[in-house]
UniProtKB/TrEMBL annotation:
Keywords: FAD, Flavoprotein, Oxidoreductase, Plasmid. It comes from Neorhizobium petrolearium. NCBIfam families: pbenz_hydroxyl, PRK08243.1. The keyword Flavoprotein applies. Its EC number is 1.14.13.2. The keyword Lipid metabolism does not apply. SUPFAM superfamilies: FAD-linked reductases, C-terminal domain (SSF54373), FAD/NAD(P)-binding domain (SSF51905). This is 4-hydroxybenzoate 3-monooxygenase. The gene is pobA. GO terms for molecular function: 4-hydroxybenzoate 3-monooxygenase activity. Residues 2-342 form the FAD-binding domain.
Length: 389
């Protein structure tokens, strides 16, 4: 088999890249080790920057997002028993879109099917080869048979645990990592959100986030210890803890109901440099992870795809290597800005085990400064809505 671009991973990064390539007449195949249903069962991101919205439109997969997504002009920072609104639109002229990663992935899968793009799900032992030489190829197994795809380029869109980054010799890779000493316990429930905008809460008992997927579906998170067990968290216990971390007006108004998803996610910051090795490109979570506090992970996947697609288009349309050669540097510049922002949001909003009451006071002072200084609020808002590509 032969294709122009072999894409490993059918998450948002792989699907978005695949669709842009298909629309431009550039042949590609997507391989994923799990099934479509498994991918669609993962509950992840919920906040899209305008850049991501534009990319989905460019891919021709934005129609349902515009119909069902919820544009948000602001969010709240809650601390010291009160709510403080950050007016994203007033401060930046831009907004974010609340639309679940699951829905976005669904839309991209449907679009791919409608445009005849080829994808292989439940492909095992996927392996990139010879990306340092002139003839890269990918092998995989399906139903006990080994297949080989020869290609011009390989896009490693296979997430943090994927095979692409691991195929690069260690000596060619520099990694940076911070593991945070807590996780997020999250639930999804068919109840109306406690507020029409997101609430990020700093509380001496720990961080809490009230988000949503629609007017009738809420996504709530609380900071938890890394060794917490899901079984120990009944819905009642979860809601009780969430209410204690919110200002009284929200705690009193919260509608509760049975959760239909509950999971714990660890928090980490991670970057691998560079993001290109010969004819292999790392894209999205395969190259970097941010803690979810800044809502940046999925959005970074979109900006990586933007730069890579630009490079591949230049190569196929104009025989230019300039965009491909610039990919890693352009992508990493934006990645590090989002890594810094996500780290600072995480540091400002969570309870750290070793900083005590002094740490809590410093956080509240920082938050108070943020919400009372227009310059500081604007810096926060412009990072939250997304820095330009
Ligand atoms: P994905 O989505 O992990 O997709 C990778 C795909 O590669 C496949 N794969 C392989 N295929 C073949 N062979 C192998 N050896 C393979 N290994 C893996 C996998 O099966 C999978 O299908 O990576 P991608 O496309 O880079 O997308 C990244 C995003 O999924 C991620 O950054 C976000 O979900 C992060 N994130 C958030 N991002 C935001 O922008 N806004 C948010 O509000 C937000 N909230 C979140 C989040 C992530 C969370 N968790 C659970 C990590 C909230 C949470 C709780
Ligand atoms: C979500 O809705 O899942 C969500 C929203 C904002 C974040 C992280 C996750 O910062």
């Amino acid at each position: 088999m032969r294709t122009q671009v072999a894409i490993i991973g059918s998450g948002p990064a792989g699907l978005l890249l695949g669709q842009l390539l298909t629309n431009a007449g550039i042949d590609n195949i997507i391989l994923d080790r799990v099934s479509k249903d498994y991918i669609l069962g993962r509950v992840r991101a919920g906040v899209l920057e305008e850049g991501m919205v534009d990319m989905l439109d460019r891919a021709g997969a934005g129609e349902r997002m515009h119909r069902e997504g919820l544009p948000h002009d602001g969010f709240s920072l809650a601390f010291d028993g009160r709510d403080h609104r950050i007016d994203l639109f007033g401060l930046t002229g831009r907004r974010v879109m609340v639309y679940g990663q699951t829905e976005l992935t669904h839309d991209l899968m449907d679009k791919r099917e409608a445009s005849g793009g080829s994808s292989v799900y439940e492909a095992t032992n996927v392996m990139p080869h010879d990306f340092d030489g002139a003839g890269p190829y990918v092998t995989y197994e399906k139903d006990g048979v080994t297949h080989r795809i020869d290609c011009d380029f390989i896009a490693g869109c296979d997430g943090y645990h994927g095979v692409s980054r691991k195929s690069v010799p260690e000596s060619a890779l520099r990694t940076y990592e911070r593991i945070y000493p807590f996780g997020w316990l999250g639930i999804l429930a068919e109840v109306p959100p406690v507020s029409h905008e997101l609430i990020y809460a700093n509380h001496p008992r720990g961080f809490a986030l009230c988000s949503m997927r629609s007017h009738t579906r809420s996504r709530y998170y609380i900071q938890c210890a890394l060794d917490e067990k899901i079984e120990d968290w009944s819905d009642d216990r979860f809601y009780d803890e969430l209410r204690r971390r919110l200002p009284a007006e929200h705690a009193e108004n919260m509608v509760t109901g049975p959760s239909f998803e509950k999971s714990i996610a660890p928090l980490r910051s991670f970057v691998a440099e560079p993001m290109r090795f010969g004819k292999l490109f790392l894209v999205g979570d395969a190259a970097h992870i941010v803690p979810p506090t800044g809502a940046k992970g999925l959005n970074l996947a979109a900006s990586d795809v933007y730069y890579l697609f630009d490079g591949l288009l230049g190569y196929y349309a104009d025989k230019s290597l300039a965009g491909i050669d610039a990919y890693s540097e352009r992508a990493l510049k934006r990645v590090w800005r989002a890594v810094r922002f996500s780290w600072s949001m995480t540091t400002m909003l969570h309870r750290f085990p070793d900083t005590g009451e002094f740490g809590q006071k410093i956080q509240e002072t920082e938050l108070d400064y943020l919400v009372s200084s227009k310059a500081a609020s604007t810096a926060l808002a412009e990072n939250y809505v997304g820095l330009p590509y």
